[in-house]
Design goal:
By secondary structure, the protein is mainly alpha-helical. It contains 10 helices and no strands. The relative contact order is 0.15.
Length: 210
């Protein structure tokens, strides 16, 4: 009850930090999709790029988040704005599930369907946009769902470099040794992750080919 009372008393700041959190996650996920989906398409059609692209995305995932923020801080243009740095870091972390699921989804399309499309005279671009991507879209969205949930969690760490978001309450609560303040950031962040998982999962099931 103390946590609920604290959130109610500071609802304006909670809302403001929640919107900052959503902005960081939304922008970084959009960038990750713009980069990851084309990369997944490329490696599904050009297998020689498969290992280096997936290996690079895997390596990024193994770097601890605070360490990655530290690596990026000295970069002149990024270091000037904490939100830019946070968005880049979150984008890098979100790449692996999107690239991997795009690759898996397109490679999982029945070859007989692709050949039938070629037999009808479709070009490679038409096959991609009219056959492969529509059949792979639910698998791709599954990767996006994982990326969003990862980003919601990692965005709390961005407060350590002054990028805002719900992590500000968590770090402030740790400094004050106050569970109410910690939970005022942790509970909304957990609810955001749950809401993202449910909403994207619902869209994924709706677009699943029958």
């Amino acid at each position: 009850m103390n946590v609920i009372r604290f959130i109610a008393q500071n609802h304006t700041q909670v809302l403001e930090l929640t919107l900052e959190h959503l902005w960081l996650v939304g922008v970084s996920t959009a960038f990750a999709m713009l980069i990851g989906i084309p990369l997944g398409i490329v490696i599904s059609h050009r297998p020689r790029f498969n290992k280096p692209v997936l290996a690079g995305a895997n390596i990024i995932q193994t770097i601890p988040s605070l360490a990655l923020f530290g690596f990026l801080l000295p970069v002149p243009w990024l270091g000037e704005r904490a939100d830019r740095l946070a968005i880049l870091a979150l984008t890098l972390y979100a790449l692996l599930p999107i690239i991997r699921n795009t690759y898996t989804g397109i490679c999982g399309v029945d070859p007989a369907v692709v050949e039938a499309g070629r037999g009808m005279g479709l070009t490679e671009w038409q096959l991609l946009f009219q056959v492969e991507l529509p059949l792979a879209v639910s698998v791709i969205l599954s990767g996006v769902r994982v990326a969003v949930v990862i980003s919601v969690g990692l965005a709390t760490i961005a407060a350590a470099i002054g990028a805002g978001g719900l992590g500000e309450f968590i770090f402030r609560g740790l400094a004050m040794v106050d569970d109410r303040v910690i939970l005022a950031g942790a509970i909304p962040a957990a609810l955001l992750a749950l809401a993202a998982d449910v909403s994207v999962g619902s869209l994924e099931r709706r677009l699943r080919p029958r």
